[in-house]
Amino acid sequence: MPAEVGKTDMEKIGLFSEMGYTTIGDKYVSPFNRPFNEAASKNRQMLPGGSKVMSNLQAGYFDSQFARIFEGEGYVNMNQVRRQYMMEEAKKNLSKAFLPSSGEKKLYANVTIGKQFSHSADFYDEANLNYKKASEQHRRLLKGTPFKLNLYPREYFDTNPYFSDKPLPPIKIEEKKKVLPNPFKPSSPGKKAGGMKAGTFEAYPSHSADPYVVKLEKEISRKDAKIFHPSGGPKSRPVESIMALNVRR
């Protein structure tokens, strides 16, 4: 290759290769030796003044001077205001206040210009008494129940079968039976009749002699006698055990 060219063919050649999966060629930096917050150690930094303590100084407010409420106002006495209002209202009166005359005065009859009103008795419950009298007189004049046609309006549902417009009969007062103050007691209890009748009207029946005799059973004849013989059942036979049978074999 001539010397005029700056790079050789081996330097110009391009080879294709698959990139690695673990790294891209950068240097390994340990996480323990890595500096924390590098920007805090470079250039100029702002240093705060630290935590503040609560106080009542003016430095904690935005205004240069503390502004007070109601500063320069005059003191108002509420009692004085009420008295002034009462004096202004009193000026509106046309004359003095009315005062009743002192001393007791008695009333006399027939000293007025006109005639004296006559007194009439007025019962407290007179209106109710008059109403009761009028209603009782009206009931006396009624004869039977009110007349109703079969076409008069009725309720939608069945009527009450126990309801009746007829007047009820007078209430029957049951006579109370006289209750005896003390129960009846006989003069003396019943007594037994004489002659040892044991409470009966007639003499007690006499006891008949009946000696005790042992009754023998009836002898059974040999002809009529039948002896019971049980039926013959299955009889047992000698049986060898399975173990003894196998041992012999």
TrEMBL record:
Keywords: Cytoplasm, Cytoskeleton. GO terms for cellular component: centrosome; cytoplasmic microtubule. InterPro entries: CFAP96 (IPR029358). Its main location: cytoplasm. Residues 180-199 are annotated as: Disordered. The keyword Cytoplasm applies. It is found in: Cytoplasm, Cytoskeleton, Microtubule organizing center, Centrosome. The keyword Manganese does not apply. Belongs to the CFAP96 family. This is Cilia-and flagella-associated protein 96. It comes from Fukomys damarensis (Damaraland mole rat).
